[in-house]
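Structure tokens please, single chain.
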Amino acid sequence: MQLFFLFLICSGLAWFISNLSESFPNTIVLGLDYVNPPDSLLMGKASKNSMEVRLEAVGFQLLAINLRDKNLKIDLSNVKKSAGLFYITPTDAKRQLQQQLPSGVQLLETDGDSLFFKFYKVLVKNVHVLSAISLNFAPNHLLDGPLEIIPDQITVSGPKNEIDTLMSISTEAQALVDLKDDFSIEVNLIKPDSLENTKYSLNSVQIRGKVSKFSEMVINVPIEVLNLPQNAGIQTFPDVAKVLIKAKLEDLKNISPTDFQVFADYGTLVKGEQTSLGLYIGKRPLSVYSAEIIDNKVDFILKRE
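Here you go.
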């Protein structure tokens, strides 16, 4: 019995191999990849992305075609145009497909349809990249200097109606927490649905930042009063403002009250309704991360001369 089944299997295998060595037609579906659009034009939509074709080849070749990637290319560099329509004729499509098939495989016929395309005139421009990442620092740490986006601009190309008013592209949102050290991350760029036919020169950018440890101290800065009435003097209580500043330790060592200016504007008073003036910082060193007046109001006495 076992010998019979072995004979049956061998006979079936011989029959299968014999059939694979014979030539016969077969219908398959080929995927279409469109390449080389005309200069200054961007392809939008195609009438189809696959095509049913009839091939003739020996069984081994047909089996190989069915097992491999069945996408073939359609070259658009010589696409025809008539009455505002771009198209490739069935004859041209068949010729291009035949050139990409293995030797011995004959393309008998296609579905007979022309391929139609929608093209857009390409506009090319540079746009700024905006960061959408959020930074959260470990205690007593800060961003030392500006955030770096590399590159800070990309080139976009697409239909005028999509990118004519486009001025910037944003990165994806990402949160960095408990930052203590310098960082460098790659972040993808967002492509809105409204830019369906627009292409980016890059799909991501690098964002870098330098993180430093900071200290803080309080300094006393003399208060200057602006817009006093003519022939009048003023006495503020107190005459200095306490300012809490944060900066790197090495920068704090070189900071003095003369690096700051604190102002009170008498011109903002409503006559007879206020007895105190608001304070604000008018000047501070660039090396200071933050500066905050601890008590931002001051009492005063106006003196007529």
